[in-house]
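Quick one: structure for this chain?
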Amino acid sequence: MLSEKDKALSQEAVPADLRDRTLERWQSMPLAVRVILQTMSAAGALLAVVYIFGIVPFLDVTYYFLLMALYLPWVYLLLPAYKGEVRVGIFSYIPALAICGLTFFMAYMGRSLIFQTWVPVSHTWQLVVGAGIYILILDAARRAGGYIFLGIVLALSLYPIYAVYMPGMFWGPPTTLARTVAFNVFSGDAMLGVVTRVVGETIIGFLILAALLVATGAADFFLKLALALLGKARGGPAKVAVIASGFFGSLSGSIFSNVVGTGSVTIRAMKRSGFPGYYAGALEACASTGGMLMPPVMGAVAFIMADFTNTSYGVIVLAAIIPSALYYFGLYCHVDGYAAKHGIKGLPQIELPSVRKTLIDGWPFIIVLGFLIYALVFLRLERLAPFYASGLLIFLTFFKKELRITLSRIPNIIYEIGKMLSQTIGLLLPTSFILGGLMATGVAPVIASELVRMGGDSVIPVLAIGIAVCMVFGMLGMIVAAYLMLALTLAPALEQMAGLNTLAIHMFIAYYATLAAITPPIALAAFLASRISDSDPLLTSVHAARLGIVLYFIPIFFLFEPALILQGPLHLTAIWVTFNILAVVIIAGASEGRMMYLGRLKAWTRPILFAAGLCIGFPEWMSTVGGLAVTAGILALRGLAWQPDAAEDGPAPATPEPLADTQRG
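Got it. Here's what it folds into:
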């Protein structure tokens, strides 16, 4: 594991306003408050086990409100009410107590909510309770996602009120504020619908597993494993960053927390080895963004997608393997090309961990993740899989003294569970109000049919509209919101127009909403990384878009050839995966100016090869054959098109500073 000194140095790389202050706020609370919160967190985890395994049957809505009562107070206590609130104050304690009381009350009223009419409300007190919960969850949205997030959630959740004034397909029947608020809070099409169900029945198990993995040192293990495997390679620290950030992002489920958390380590290592700050920041942003799409533990969108499409989560895990592998392979090709051009060598063997020793130290993590994949894909356990994997992890740690979960570690594990769940709930619950705003008016199917009419015989205009919406919302960090909106409107339109594969459509939407995090001009992931790498934000975001270029085209490829997401014949999967691997090598080579295994490209060949690579990857035989012919023709012109690397034989950069002793084998 990383030493305390190394962790302290890593945190110093993070600007003060980007550091995670939740631990400081946690420690500022009185001991009694912390004990109560930890008890609530442990009770929530136990409640999830009881409900999901069916040990004690009770109503779904009762379970959902109990989870809110146990974890929503954490949002107000760990996240500040205003910028200057360093220690937890009255403006955090009051909403925490209020949301806890209101949601406990609604858990008690669960049977009445199911069997009586609460939309519209039949009593004034019902409206008061609903309005209180609505306002408090909006405050949670502000704390967790910022004022822009709050503004969009507020505007869309109240859409039914002003829909009557909207033109054309955006028109909706008139309604009242009271009915809108009640619908948002009490309806199964809004807060008690798909988002809350996914959090309470699926995501919670994976977050508990992630907390256990973090507490037992899995993050450090996979960082050391990546160092051991790739640290010696050309541009080793950057290749390590690609692998490590991909894994961490898969566990955390958050692009931005991954950039801040792992970027403080990986960006520093890349800069030390010779990569410029803008390149290190851009690469970290790309690697962290891809973590949301990396199996087996993907971001919240994947879980919501499974529920929305009525698809097994194991099927989604399988579908994501090829696209995510192609994306990370593209990042690897970029790094290799840059390192070759600039003579950036790997780290000396003496500074790297031993592969054998690393595997011996962390074999329980390998077994647990292997079991998780097996349970999801083959046993189809889905909701139960992360709980079984958690139990297996606890059991296996008894065989490794360094990893063993002792009594002294339990409070930290419970804290991590509470922190992860509260942050997830704080960001996802408000998006259910967006869903409620669209469902209450009934405009979603109207928009879908209007998109079909607008598109006519061409699917391109409709795809362009969907991509634009994904970009706008994704740039604001509202990935789940973008997915929910387009899953209701764009997805049905595409199915009606072109008969495209349902899962391919939904993954297409999720990918474009995600990649907005690295797309200028508001590339939030790249901007965050630039703060850590001390580089120009716009330059960093432009390079992030260039390095992640593969992610812009893969969704289009699998939309028109579902075999790339294992939704077609296996022989087509094999054919198009082969062509796409070749396409990624060519696209990355053209982007970086150096073709893997060949050498540097002349300037005039780069745009031609880039276009040829896109043609090869697009699943249509004429374009693929044409792209292959152009590529072969250019590569045949050895003296005119490319030349061997001069940097291969050039001087190595200055010897990098040694890594911490604890990272050595």
